[in-house]
Specification:
Two copies of one chain form a homodimer. By secondary structure, chain A is mainly α. Chain A is 67% helix and 10% strand. Chain A contains eight helices and two strands, in the order αααααββααα. In chain A, strand 1 (84-89) and strand 2 form a beta hairpin. Chain A starts with 7 loop residues before the first helix and ends with a helix. At the A-B interface, helix 1, helix 2, helix 3, helix 4 and helix 6 of A face helix 1, helix 2, helix 3, helix 4 and helix 6 of B.
């Protein structure tokens, strides 16, 4: 029998479960996305770029809550891999926007598929109703005001 | 209105939600536990020590899935703060066990209360049924075989 990820007395706390399960998802996600030369944050940035118009680095960082130094390095990586490009904002020539390339579009589709498989692999112990409930509860937390505010407060 | 933690196109993936919510919980947990001079991992170790008999460093690391270098530093911290002590194993005098002190017991009770409040603060956007469903789904993942195995495989 496999031991639980964290022992019962720690798993009493929902926050402790979220912290450890988040770490597991992150490590597995990093491992799998590496096959496409991506890290998890690169994938998230490409997903936003694929869904939106070109955005400034600052807007991307704000929306994904990624610190600006990390964001610069991530965009550098995506640019050197030919997945995104910095272009001049035609409304304000002093400003740069980040735009996804065609290769970036193809790559994000592959990555999306890979992450979908990762979800199926790691969540297959839950029945469909449990899985839907889990996703719904996490979505509520994601879009409610509490967590974003608490996070922004400690990041400052 | 507060923006969601991560944009909808990323939040489609349960894994991405878990990764980001886990990060948020971690940062807030680190921030609050610091008032007791603890980090999240110190709290988890003390919880296990408070519930069990004395354990070896290796056993603790295995049960909490904490790497051995991190574990040594964590036990050093707990020992210098007077919250845990390294004692000789009377069954094998060459071996050391880690044991919680009385101060450690009092501190873990305070920390437990603090983490309970943190959960209430951060999860209050969920109604009681949603919160129970969330905890139940996370518990299933914690004690199912899939995630522990996937994590142990990438940690190696």
């Amino acid at each position: 029998m496999t031991e639980p990820l964290i022992p019962d007395m720690v798993a009493d706390h929902t926050s402790c479960l979220l912290i450890k399960l988040g770490q597991v998802m992150f490590r597995v996600s990093e491992d799998r996305l590496a096959t496409l030369g991506l890290r998890t944050r690169h994938f998230m940035i490409l997903k936003v770029l694929a869904g939106d118009q070109a955005s400034s680095q600052l807007e991307l960082g704000t929306r994904l809550r990624i610190d600006s130094t990390t964001m610069v390095a991530a965009i550098d990586h995506l640019e050197s891999a030919g997945l995104a490009a910095r272009i001049r904002d035609h409304r304000d020539r002093r400003r740069f926007l980040v735009e996804i390339t065609e290769l970036g579009m193809r790559t994000v589709e592959q990555a999306d598929e890979l992450v979908r498989t990762l979800n199926d692999d790691l969540l297959h112990g839950l029945d469909p109703a449990e899985r839907a409930n889990l996703h719904q509860a996490l979505l509520s937390l994601n879009s409610g005001a509490t967590l974003p505010r608490a996070y922004d407060a400690v990041r400052r």
